[in-house]
Each structure stands twice: as C-alpha cells, then as structure tokens.
Write a structure and sequence with these properties.
Elements (H helix, E strand, L loop, with lengths): L3 H18 L8 E5 L5 H9 L4 E4 L2 H14 L6 E4 L8 H7 L2 E5 L2 H10 L7 E6 L16 H9 L4 E7 L8 H19 L7 E3 L6 H6 L4 E4 L1 H4 L6
Parallel strand pairs: 1-2, 1-8, 2-3, 3-4, 4-5, 5-6, 6-7
Helix pairs in contact: 4-5
The site of pyridoxal-5'-phosphate has 13 residues, from strand 8 and helix 9.
C-alpha cells in the first residue's frame, strides 16, 4: 500500500505534469489536502511530508484538529480551509479558528463571519461557492447572483474576498468536466475587472483535478488520492 507521503509526492508530480502540458506555472496551483474523517496521525504524516494546507468539512471535527496541532506543533505554519456547508449557528467556530472559508453562498453567513472574526486574527479569506452545474440539490449560488454578493462581501472589513469555489456535478467525461470548470474561470475573469483581489479559483478533486487545472484552477482540494478512501461512521 502507498503511504500518505508517497501519495502526496505522486499528486504533486501529477500537478506539475498537467501544468506543464497546458503551459501553466505549477506554483500557481495550490494543493489543499482534504483531511475530513482522517486522524491527527494521518495528518501528521502529511505534515512530515511537507504539506501545510488542510481542508475540513465538519466544524467540530475541524476545530478539534486545529486545537490539537496548535498544542502539538505550535510553530508549524499550518493553514486550515473550511470547505463544507456551514449552518449560520456554527459560523462563530469557523470565524475563530480557520484561515479560509470556501463555501459562502449568502450574505448572512458572510456578515456573521465578519462580525465574529477575532480582532487579533488576520482577515478571514473567503470564497463564494457557485452552483455551476445548476443542480437543485447542491449548495452554492447561481452564477448570475455572484457579482451582487461579491459587491456586498467586499464591504466587510474583516473578510478578504479571494475568489470562487465550485463542486460541479460528478462527471466521468473529461470534456464535460472541462466545460463546467471553464465556466467558472470565465466567471472569475469577469469579476476580476471590478475586483482584482479575487485571485483564487478553488476547484478540482481527486476525480477531476486534471480538467480543473487545465481550466485555470488555483487551488485543488484532494482527499482520497492522498489519504485513501473515507469510512464514514
Ligand atoms: C471531500 C471533499 C473533497 C475531496 O474529495 P476527494 O474526491 O476525496 O478528493 C474536496 N472538496 C470538497 C468540498 C469535499 O467535500
């Protein structure tokens, strides 16, 4: 069986290969290791292999890990990304512990995060989640509504609006994956005219990383390909 260390190096290699094929600088593509359901031992193995950015989906699980590593490795420069759906009554925990929040889909959540961000912490980096495949069951807002929300988030002093995030409908066909991701890239480009601070496109998971990078992703969120498949209790 491959170790987490081997998997991380294989993924980084893969990112470099894809980047060079589509003539992108691999340093503009950040790897977020999605560690949901994985133990602090497994995360430690990834840290030992040089990984510093981690993504968590569940508030309680995420803050337990963040607190653990603050104690266990006070000098490590870990960056924690909240990538799951967030209920407004739990926003305080994200505001108080995370560095990035990927799934803003309404003003109310943004306002709460802004109000709850402790003054001694750096601004919270936030992304607007876009429902790019227009699935009724998925979270994220419609592409047409993003510009309005962006305008309102920009005005919040304790948040830095950094870009967009999407989880497109699962597709095995590369061209279909590419189409959804390309729409996201075009949407970001159109917003960058007014908001140059929006420099981030969070898209691409273990099953569609290649298409995401070809389409311009700057942050891939990879879980299974690093840590193996997840077992939910
Ligand atoms: C679980 C998850 C991932 C990682 O998915 P894998 O297929 O395991 O790479 C990425 N992004 C989000 C939002 C997730 O919930």
């Amino acid at each position: 069986m491959n170790t987490i260390h081997d998997n991380l190096f294989a993924i980084k290699n893969e990112i470099e290969k894809i980047a060079s094929k589509c003539e992108r600088d691999p340093n503009t593509i950040e790897l977020i290791a999605v560690s949901k359901t994985k133990s602090v031992q497994q995360i430690t193995e990834a840290i030992d292999a040089g990984q510093l950015a981690f993504g968590e989906n569940y508030v309680q699980e995420g803050i337990e890990k963040i607190k653990y590593f603050k104690q266990a490795m006070p000098n490590s420069a870990l960056i924690w990304h909240f990538i799951g759906p967030l209920q407004s009554n739990k926003s305080k925990f994200v505001a108080e512990h995370f560095d990035w929040m990927h799934t803003i889909d309404r003003l109310k959540i943004a306002q709460r995060l802004n109000d709850q961000r402790p003054t001694d912490m750096a601004n919270l980096n936030v992304l607007i989640q876009v429902n790019i495949s227009q699935e009724t069951s998925k979270s994220g807002i419609a592409a047409e509504e993003v510009a309005d929300l962006a305008k309102q988030i920009i005005a919040l002093p304790n948040l830095n609006l950094r870009g967009l995030m999407a989880i497109p409908e699962i597709e095995n066909d590369f061209d279909k994956q590419l189409k959804a991701f390309t729409k996201m890239h075009e949407l970001l480009r159109s917003l960058q005219a007014d908001y140059p601070c929006m420099d981030t496109l969070s898209m691409g998971m273990s099953g569609d990383m290649q298409a995401a990078i070809v389409a311009g992703s700057t942050m891939v969120r990879i879980g299974t390909a690093i840590f193996g498949s997840r077992q939910y209790l």
